[in-house]
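Propose amino acids for all 70 sites.
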């Protein structure tokens, strides 16, 4: 499966939006709690969500193709 097809999938977009919102919330809460900016933590969290999102969308599309073949 090509990354372009994954990026155009609406489920992947929703996962990324949810991941970015969660990372932003975590960023704000960390800043309020400690007074420090944790940019590395935000980047790691967004990358983690992207990797998991790509894997999930690829799996869902594979299972959909497999179900259509039966």
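Proposal:
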């Amino acid at each position: 499966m090509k990354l372009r097809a994954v990026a155009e999938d609406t489920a992947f977009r929703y996962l990324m939006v949810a991941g970015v919102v969660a990372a932003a919330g975590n960023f704000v809460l960390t800043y309020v709690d400690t007074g420090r900016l944790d940019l590395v933590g935000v980047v790691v969290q967004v990358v983690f969500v992207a990797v998991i999102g790509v894997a999930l969308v690829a799996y869902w599309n594979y299972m959909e193709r497999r179900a259509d073949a039966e």
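Helices lie at 3-8, 10-34, 39-69. Residues 3-69 form one domain.
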